[in-house]
Design goal:
Largest sheet: none
Number of strands: 0
Radius of gyration: 18 Å
Strand content: under 5%
Helix content: over 70%
Order of helices and strands: HHHHHHHH
């Protein structure tokens, strides 16, 4: 579904059209789930997507149509996932202070998962990489979602690619 049609559905949903809201969610749900799985947590992608839609519905009256609807919605999903990751990191730090965990190292024949490699990226690089490479957004749309210039997105994606190559090579040699 193109962004023009999504914007029309958003306008109708803003006015209280439940069918338009349902169509809007159905048209974007797969992409939002995929984005949440990559930026947040694969196991909690459905909860993160639900939180995204709750925030989006509350904010529909503030959507002006300046940006494509998908970019606007992905921006909300990105913020939901960032909040989730911050909470998870805080929880880990508290858990580490309470009870240190034993060091578990991966065996040499353990296959490296893509999500594990993505976890090795800086959060800004990960977001830019997932939005452009995994989700297929144009650099300009990803820049809109991240709130930064297009050139910054390009450099983050390039650095992410280099880092992923390095992480993959290190995992293969381990």
């Amino acid at each position: 579904m193109d962004d023009r049609h999504l914007a029309e559905l958003a306008a109708a949903a803003r006015l209280g059209d439940d069918r338009a809201l349902t169509a809007l969610v159905r048209a974007t749900q797969a992409d939002v789930l995929r984005l949440c799985a990559h930026l947040g947590s694969a196991g909690e992608a459905e909860d993160l997507a639900q939180d995204t839609y709750l925030r989006a519905v509350d904010a529909l009256d503030r959507y002006r149509g300046d940006a494509p609807f998908r970019a606007w919605l992905f921006g909300i999903a990105r913020n939901v996932c960032a909040d989730h990751v911050r909470r998870r990191v805080r929880r880990r730090r508290l858990d580490t202070l309470r009870a240190p965990r034993p060091d578990h190292t991966a065996g040499p024949d353990q296959e490296v998962a893509v999500l594990d490699l993505l976890d090795g990226l800086d959060p800004d690089q990960r977001c830019a990489f997932v939005l452009t490479v995994v989700m297929g957004l144009e650099y300009a749309e990803a820049a809109e979602v991240c709130g930064c210039p297009v050139g910054t997105i390009r450099s983050r994606v390039n650095r992410a690619r280099e880092r992923l190559r390095s992480l993959h090579a290190a995992a293969e040699s381990a």
